Amino acid sequence: MEKFLSFDDIKKSLENRETDCKAIVNYYLNNIKTKAHLNAFVEVYEESALQQAAQVDSKIASGKAGKLAGMVIGIKDVLVYRDHEVNASSKILDGFVSQFTATAIQRLIEEDAIIIGRLNCDEFGMGSSNENSVHGKVLNAADENRVPGGSSGGSAVAVQANLCTVSLGTDTGGSVRQPAAFTGLIGIKPTYSRVSRWGLIAYASSFDTIGVFSRNVKDNALVMEIMAGPDNFDSTASKKPVPHYSELLHFDKRAKIAYLKETLESPALQQEIKANTLAVLEKLKQEGHEVEEVQFPLLKYVLPTYYILTTAEASSNLSRFDGVKYGYRSPNVHNLESMYKKTRSEGFGEEVKRRIMLGTFVLSASYYDAYFTKAQKVRRLIKEYTENLLSKYDYIVLPTTPSTAFKFGEHSNDPVAMYLEDLFTVQASVSGVPSLSLPNGTDSKGLPIGIQIMANSFKEAELYAFGNYLMDLNSN
Amino acid sequence: MLSAEIKDKYELVVGLEVHAQLLTQSKMYTSDSTEYGNLPNTHISVITLGHPGTLPKVNRKAVEFAIKMGIACNSTITRNNIFARKNYFYPDLPKGYQITQDKDPICVGGEVPVTLPDGSKKSIALTRIHMEEDAGKSMHLAGEVDTLVDFNRAGVPLIEIVSEPDIRSSEEAYAYLVEIKKLVRYLDICDGNMEEGSLRCDANISVRLHGAPEYGKKVEVKNMNSFRNVARAIEHEFERQIALVEQGIEIISETRTFDATTGSTSGMRTKEDLNDYRYFPEPDLSPVIVSEEWLESVRAAMPSLPRELHHKFVHEFGLPEYDAGVLTDSKEIALYFETLCGLTSNYKAASNWMMGPVKSYLNELTLHISDFPISATALASLIALIDDGKVNFSVASQKIYPVMLENPDKSPLQIAQELNLIQESDEGSIKPLVESVLADNPAKVAEYKSGKKGLMGMFMGQVMKKSQGKADPKVATKLLTELLEN
After folding, report:
1. Average pLDDT of B169-175?
2. The CATH number of the domain where A147 resides is what?
3. pLDDT in tens, A123-150
4. CA–CA gap between residue A245 and residue A242 (Å, rounded)
5. Cα separation, B333 vs A160, whole angstroms
6. Residue B271 pLDDT more than 60?
7. How many other C-beta atoms are found inside a 10 Å radius of the C-beta of residue B262?
8. Does B95 sit within 8 Å of A319, measured CB to CB?
């Protein structure tokens, strides 16, 4: 029988002395073993998780437990955890052990969360299907012939299959929201700079965020409010105070809601997803909210802008993996140049190499202005347009993905078709605004459909409250 | 060698890029120590090593140091400082890029006034000063097949001071570097040691016919580890480039390295082969905003600059340009002198003491002014002792000063009294000595009276001898004149 499906369940069981943290960890460890074929976990921290469980149990006994006592969390293989290996699903980081812990994880541990293991993902967060991983593909528990989405595919499946209470992913262009949609979960990409990036292995620094997968809004909000906030190790982290999102979930206002004409008219959009999205909008109207169609003529520029800027940053961020200091070094080298070339050719996967080359190209002197500078300008336009819409409307509602989970190999030979998976998620990433993906029914194959809500920067509290309301509305 | 006639047809055009290692305690983007000379790889954190997941953080002290240099050079200080990445692969560059500044350097424009050996003055315009981080050091040890890398230096803060192509001779280049070194040392932001690499200089050199509207193609010369070698490299390049132009050979834009043993340069690589550094804004650092308050607090804490002290010494203290130049060469000497001048009003005497006995003592023992045993207060009372007529300069410098050096706690007056050196200025007691000298030399007195006034010195010498050097020369002269003119 499935247990511990929400943190409230766990807390109740702990309060009633029906269980302890050790038993909770063992329950998940057992699930992980049973579902090992899903390949969600890259490494299970059985020993350190049980140690943590014992510590938290004694804290509970002495009444000194933190807010997350009893919560068991899996972390994406791009978040560093002191004395634990981390690979970013890449051969190039083979055997690399981090000497420090990401701020986000450190804050969760300080509130007594238990870290149970690291989760499979696309290499360096680059991908939309979790097929680009040195650790192999992850299976979607809803249909094991299909991808879980990416890049945080392992993080999604870990919660989907109840292998941990919640999980951390990272979202640069949709890497939390898209897999959340494919697996029927709640996934958030917070405002850029809301959560410190210290300890997040960079893909594209000005887009990268740490997000959360959960089965319910409250757990998601609780984890986010603990991770978020200023950090001395990240000068780009916002210094704005963090509201207690999990205590602000009550929603009783009449909201102004916009939906984007171009997204619903997109030829790439699966009909059932369109129908479910329209149904939600209709329900909201019936509930008395103001729902309006607005235009977003910049939609067609969003993906090119995103790919130019993220690959540019990635080409530089990934330069440090050169075989000199740590990680993989090709054994067949005879001089410095061959060490660089062979190490990087053998250490990086195809998609990562494609993006490094694309990024190097758009930053090169002869093309810089035509691509990078122009993309920066377009980014500003998209951001201004989006923020302007979000100053007139409380929320923008749109599908999370154009389609439901696709089959393995379906887009493997067509990178552009794969990039189209991000069509609806990159707007929030390019603009920096927060965005929440919620389950919104299933298609005729029984595959989960996601619906996405965007709010203005630092409006996570409003986003969670509305998300919670929408979940209730959908279940009625 | 080129004939002077050919050389005179051409104009030398030089711009210098000077890297100054900043004297901050910690590195540009981490708190690792910047201490020099430690065991390899002992000042390295995960940030210095560019471990995955790390982020840089700007050292505000380094920003302040850069602002100080900008204020000293009259540059415009940039308020919104954006950092940039310069991408290239090298084993001593842990992240695969250097965090520097590209389009928005902390200091824009400005100038460095220099004085040339012939006393003429010129101002060298600056293009910019920007902040960046140093790289580590690759080491090739004897017997080792592999190259080893020491990352202690990686991330040490640097400022790069870029001049306009305003320099027209090797003397100007030398004078400019002397001035830059003087400035960074006065500001206490860099120790200015070119031999140890805390000050490094690359030169962009070109030649053109006098009056030509365009600059010639420039050659960048590296690896000059002293000011003299910069001057030598410039001289060499000037001749080499003229010779090529004269032969009708086109100069190629390239990087050349200077060889100190031969005094010549040789090509390293052509600019065309160079990396495309793919500069772009550093997304891991939020812009550093220099607020009005911050700028004002840095301005308020600025020490005196050499040109300010020079001006003060000439215009307030009435010293010759030469004295002011010598005294402001080193910050510590200048500050000692300034203190001294707060304690005496005989500025010229103070200057003479500094440039004479004080400097020769320091030079003899190769000491620094901070090791000089005599306090400014004691030196001022020695000057006062002379001014009050208690001792004369030769007694002070030859008898009292050496004792003061050995016994810095004793006052000059105390020493003079102990050694019985206080000058006799009482006419009553000097007069018998004068009379006895004149009585002993009747022939000389007659010669004097017949017009041989030069004998006065001889009489004075005799009086001083009889008084064992203690007679006040002014009183003695007065008495001698009175008695001889009667």
Report:
1. 97
2. 3.90.1300.10
3. 999 999 999 999 999 999 999 999 999 9
4. 8
5. 75
6. no
7. 9
8. yes
Mean pLDDT for all residues in chain B? 92
Partner-chain contact B52 A88, CB within 8 Å:
yes
CB A348 within 8 A of CB A357: no
User: Does A363 contact chain B (CB < 8 Å)?
Assistant: yes
SS3 of residue B258 by DSSP = strand
**Residue A34, domain member (yes or no):** yes
B321 is written with which tokens?
């340009």
- Tokens found for residue A372: 């990078």
Give the tokens for residue A337. Answer: 């140049």
- DSSP secondary structure code for residue B23 in this structure: -
Would A360 be classed as within a structural domain?
no
Alpha-carbon distance values, A313 to A202, A237, B26, B66, B289 (Å): 9, 18, 27, 28, 23
- Distance, in Å, from the CA atom of A159 to the CA atom of A146, rounded to the nearest integer, reads 17
Q: Is A64 a catalytic residue?
A: no
In a domain, A69, yes or no: yes
Q: Which residues of B295-318 are buried (b: 16+ CB within 10 A; e: fewer)?
A: beebeeeeebbbbebbebbbeebe
Render pLDDT for A355-368 as a digit per residue (tens, 0 to 9): 999 999 999 999 99
Q: ipTM of the assembly?
A: 0.96
Q: How many CB pairs under 8 A join A and B?
A: 99
Handedness of CA A387, A205, B286, B46 (dihedral sign): positive
CA distance B237 to chain A (A): 30
Token readout for A133 is 């991983």
User: In CATH, which of 2.60.40.10, 1.10.10.410, 3.30.565.10, 1.10.1670.40 is domain B427-485?
Assistant: 1.10.10.410
In which residue ranges of chain B is CATH 1.10.10.410 found?
427-485
Phi, psi of A301 (to 5 degrees): -95, -10
pLDDT band at residue B146 using 50, 70 and 90 as cut-offs: confident
A175 pLDDT higher than 70: yes
| Residue A131 near residue A352, CB atoms below 8 Å | no
DSSP type of residue A20: -
- Lookup: tokens for B38: 């430690």
pLDDT digits (tens, 9 = 90+) for B304-333: 999 999 999 999 999 999 999 999 988 999
Strand, coil or helix: what is B358?
Answer: helix
Q: What is the count of structural domains for chain A?
A: 1
The span from the CA of A389 to the CA of A392, in Å, is 5
Q: Does residue A315 form part of some domain?
A: no
What pLDDT does B390 receive? Answer: 86
Residue A33's domain comprises 7-247
Residue B373 backbone phi and psi in degrees, to 5: -75, -25
Q: Whole-angstrom Cα distance, residue A204 to residue B221? A: 37
Indicate the residue type of A288. G
Residues from chain A contacting residue B149 (CB–CB below 8 Å):
324
Angle ∠(B461,B462,B467) on CA atoms, nearest 5: 100
Residue B457, chain A, CB below 8 Å: the answer is: no
Report the alpha-carbon distance of residue B3 to residue B191 in Å, rounded.
Answer: 41
